[in-house]
From TrEMBL:
Protein name: Leucine-rich repeat, immunoglobulin-like and transmembrane domains 3b
InterPro entries recorded: Ig-like_dom, Ig-like_dom_sf, Ig-like_fold, Ig_sub, Ig_sub2, Leu-rich_rpt, Leu-rich_rpt_typical-subtyp, LRFN
Region (Disordered): 344-470
Ranges where the Ig-like domain occurs: 246-336
PANTHER family in UniProt: LEUCINE-RICH REPEAT, IMMUNOGLOBULIN-LIKE DOMAIN AND TRANSMEMBRANE DOMAIN-CONTAINING PROTEIN 3, SYNAPTIC ADHESION-LIKE MOLECULE SALM
Amino acid composition bias (Polar residues), ranges on this chain: 367-399, 431-445
Keywords, sorted A to Z: Disulfide bond, Leucine-rich repeat, Repeat, Signal
Domain of life where this protein originates: Eukaryota
Ranges of Basic and acidic residues composition bias in the record: 408-421, 446-459
Organism: Seriola dumerili
Amino acid sequence: MYLLVLVHILQSSLLAVHSCPSLCACSYGNSGTAESVQCSDPGISVVPINVPADTVKLRLEKTLISRVPRAAFYNLSELRFLWLVYNSITSIHPSSFVNLKALRELRLDGNFLTSFPWEGLRDMPQLQTLGLHNNRLSSLPAHAALFLPNITYLDLSSNRLTILPAELLDLWFPLPGQHGGPTQRRILGLHDNPWLCDCQISMVMSLSMSLWSPVVLMDQLLMCSRSLGQSGVLLTQAQLSRCMRPSVQPAATRVVSPLGSNVILRCDATGYPTPTLTWIKTSAYAGEKRRTLYIESPRVGVRWSIISLNGLSYKDAGEYRCQARNMGGISEALIRLRVVGVTRLSRPPKKKSQKTPPKPSLKYRRPNQNPATINTPSMKENQIPLNITPPSFNKTQTAPDPGSRVFPADEYKVNPQDTKKKTQTSIKSTPESSDNTTSALLSETQRYKEELTPARSDIDAMSPEHSLKD
């Protein structure tokens, strides 16, 4: 049972692949594939849906088809040629050509189209030939140039076109070096349209006549009129000579300026009609208040513009484009601005360090003196300057007191040997100070005291308070 159902499904599929639509004629190749399907019966009013899936060429001619619905040819993924000529088509859905990845030629001549879904060309990446001859197209949108890079044959003749967008001129006549690859040669049909006598159509004729032109016109006799409704006149060479595509020349292509400085960027443009100038930066300006723009046109066909940037910051660096535009096309120049420098950080002034006086050693404290009230020894209190040589005395003379008081030698008799022993004893019993300055002072003081007779320590030893302490 299941085997019979499977066989029935396979037979239905084969019939769908090889069946030919009614009122149509199909031709098959040696391998059994449908090479061509032609439907030209006046009774056909809709696009056939049972066209063999392996069809390579489909021709729908002289029928009553008025519209092309969405995904009308979705099952024809191998279709390469699609002719929908001399029908009554008035509208085409933007998604009518979905899945036609292998299509190379699309012809829609002899219909009643007033507009064409240019964005639908994205579904046909291999398309090279597009025929729209003898329709009712009245305008070409500027965005159409985005979907025509691969089209090498474009027939727009016998329509109602009046103006050719400048974007199409940039596509058909690229500037040297604007496109990386080799320039494609294109065949254009622009005749039998009520063109206005402007620079676009004049530039097409002028450039197509030049040697090695990338564009070849099917008919070079183009008619144009000064205004709509007037009779057309043949374009002459005298009229062509007045139109000139804009050319931009910057004052400098690379500018290096320090941080915080002011800089002026300038560009000059020529062309006819006199081009308009616009400055473009990839990102928004860091500060609109710091930008000043000047535009001047000293005479017809010439215009210059400068942009002033004050107080440069790192955000102002980048690429600036000066773009010129007129009826003959668009041209631009690039200026690169580089900001160099390092921001200086302001540092507060260093404070002078206040050195604290060293703590006096307890060795100079008198017996009845409070340690909290000890001050640094002065010259008036038991301090001997290191740079003064002490006077020499005889053994029978008494040494003057380093302080403010002098004791006569006859009043007190001191044995020099006892003085030496007691001085050594006091030095050994006193712990060494951590202060290097105090240690040096004590060492020098000790050396001088040993040479003086009698010493201060012996005199203090004779006082009643010191006797009691010992």
